[in-house]
Amino acid sequence: MMSNQKQHYHHGDLYKSLLDAATKLLREGGVEALSMRKLADRVGVSRMAPYHHFKDKNDLLCAIAEQGFRLQEGCLSECEVLPTAAALKTYVLTYIRFSQEHAETYDLMFGRDIWKTGVPTESLKQVSKVTFKRWLDWIERLQRERVLSADDSA
């Protein structure tokens, strides 16, 4: 259900408010429905306010993808402290749930909009590489602990 109610930004973290609202707009209508103008209207700020945090729509999309990678890394951190076999099962289920519940963010993280047709920001490239490297390190640990076969590729 689309909401036409405008949020009014009064104080706090404008960057976070913009990211949250952009993520909701993305969920409601996809990449095509997201614009800087709609974002400003949704948050209740001037039409130029988002440009103080994001140079353009691509920059905003990259920030949403970065946020997704950070969430994914947080899930991995939570799973790593569980007993090993349970950790793997929990992580896989959490990963699948994330991809379903946050499909638009997941698509930005791994899909065409940024990586093939857009221009990933340096910070997005860095966050994605760090997250992937951490995941690979964990898979190698699971292989050493014989939870996964060493023949299984990451």
Automatic annotation (TrEMBL):
GO molecular function: DNA-binding transcription factor activity; transcription cis-regulatory region binding
Residues in HTH tetR-type domain copies: 12-72
Pfam families: TetR_N
Keyword field contains Cell inner membrane: no
InterPro entries, per database record: Homeodomain-like_sf, HTH-type_TetR-like_transc_reg, HTH_TetR, Tet_transcr_reg_TetR-rel_C_sf
DNA-binding region, residues: 35-54
Lineage, opening ranks: Bacteria, Pseudomonadati, Pseudomonadota, Gammaproteobacteria, Oceanospirillales
Keyword annotations from UniProtKB, A to Z: DNA-binding
Domain of life from the UniProt record: Bacteria
Originating organism: Nitrincola nitratireducens
Record gene name: tetR
UniProt keyword annotation of DNA-binding present: yes
Protein name per Swiss-Prot or TrEMBL: Tetracycline repressor protein class D
Cited PROSITE patterns: HTH_TETR_2
